[in-house]
Design a protein that fits this description.
By secondary structure, this protein is of the alpha+beta class. The chain contains 13 helices and 21 strands. Helix 7 packs antiparallel against helix 8 and helix 9 packs across helix 10.
Length: 409
């Protein structure tokens, strides 16, 4: 693409805020420089081309939806490699996630499961917008989250020994038969049984476990979270999740990558999240929304898995790429510093989005003849048609792009 292509320049983005009940009244408005507290909880800022809430670009003297522009100019915006693999669609969605309250316990399908589930529910005539629909598209949904504040979550099944140790302290004696299932038959059989308990039995198990956890609340963070979760979702089976899922705590600029089929739940904090552009969620608790236990059980990987904490430490002062090993996205964090000669070159071979979370920077392009500013809370889309540009200033900027290194293997 030559420098005179109308799309060979950066574009400021206008993004949608999602006001889910678990969101924060201050985190996103503060980042965007807006008054706070907000009138409604602001949970997620969506930055991308998801048809539910596409970002807008100022193009040809008006704001236009990114998904519509991609359908008109796929190669110029996305790049030929990405279009060849994914078609005329942005394969990732970037978000600011601000959790004041815990999100639901959930998992996402892999590619095979998503395709089969989507076709099956289509054949059953389930409307795409139906509340009980599990598969709204045929895509998998791996994701990566990098913390902006201390961030807590539950991710992946604990080892059998960890589960037994924690349950030994709080499990009601009258339900020792379930612990026997765990020791003799393993995590999958145990989880299937507790997810299918009659409601009265489930309530008694949660109540008894929380009573025991309250008596030992300082002994382990899992116990204090059980008590808190029960205050927010009384009697919900998800209250027991800290006993069988790994607890993680991220410091700012630490990240985790979650492959599909991993049971997880975010508890508290603010982070930058990137995911494959899918809306497939199977829930398992801590939510009033639809829960399909049989389908969740079919999707889950019950292998013990504690996500690695991905740190920027030791990666140098300029930037760090968080490994994802998926085609749809790659997330990196960049640090620009004051100084006219301190410029960070960005060589593009596909679309990328820049999100500034601290400070301000200038993006120079067209052989440094033109510039675009980016400040805290703002995002820029750099089309594939703009192949070379440079950042300068003093800022922390997250860069989201297609993982072309994997696509070209």
């Amino acid at each position: 693409m030559d420098a005179f292509h109308p799309l060979s320049r950066p574009f400021k983005m206008k993004n949608t805020i999602q006001t889910y009940a678990w969101g924060s009244y201050s985190a996103i408005p503060q980042l965007l420089g807006q008054p706070f507290p907000s009138s409604k909880p602001q949970a997620e800022l969506w930055i991308g081309a998801h048809p539910k809430a596409p970002s807008l670009l100022w193009f040809q003297d008006r704001w236009q939806a990114l998904d519509q522009l991609i359908s008109q100019y796929p190669d110029a915006l996305l790049g030929k490699t990405a279009v060849h693999r994914f078609g005329a669609q942005l394969p990732f969605l970037l978000k600011i996630l601000a959790a004041e309250q815990p999100l639901s316990i959930q998992a996402h399908p892999d590619k095979t499961q998503a395709k089969a589930g989507f076709l099956r529910e289509n054949d059953e005539g389930i409307d795409l917008s139906a509340a009980h629909r599990n598969y709204r598209d045929p895509q998998h949904k791996p994701e990566c989250l990098c913390a902006l504040t201390p961030f807590e979550g539950l991710c992946g099944f604990r080892s059998l020994s960890d589960m037994m140790s924690l349950m030994g302290s709080v499990w009601p004696m009258q339900y020792n038969n379930l612990m026997t299932v765990l020791t003799k038959e393993g995590t999958q059989s145990f989880f299937e049984q507790i997810m299918n308990l009659p409601s009265k039995t489930s309530l008694e198990l949660v109540s008894g476990s929380v009573d025991q956890a309250s008596a030992s609340i300082d002994a382990n963070p899992a116990f204090s979270w059980m008590v808190r979760l029960n205050e927010l979702f009384p009697g919900d089976i998800g209250v027991l999740a800290p006993l069988f899922l790994n607890m993680i705590k991220l410091q700012p600029e630490e990240a985790i990558f979650l492959p599909p089929r991993q049971l997880h739940g975010y508890l508290n904090g603010v982070g930058v999240e990137i995911m494959a552009n899918s809306d497939n969620v199977l829930r398992g608790g801590l939510t009033p929304k639809h829960i399909d236990v049989p389908e969740l059980l079919r999707v889950l990987d019950f292998t013990p898995h504690k996500p690695d904490i991905l740190s920027t430490e030791g990666s140098g002062s300029i930037g760090h790429v968080f490994p994802s090993n998926v085609e749809e996205f790659e997330l990196s964090v960049l640090h620009t510093h004051d100084g006219s000669s301190d410029k960070l070159r960005l060589e593009n071979d596909s679309v990328c989005i820049l999100l500034c979370t601290r400070g301000s920077a200038e993006l120079r392009y067209h052989q440094n003849e033109k510039a675009a500013a980016i400040r805290t809370g703002e995002s820029l889309l750099i089309p594939a048609a703009l192949t070379d540009c440079a950042l300068s200033g003093k800022a922390t900027i997250f860069r989201a792009t297609v993982n072309t290194k994997i696509l070209r293997k």
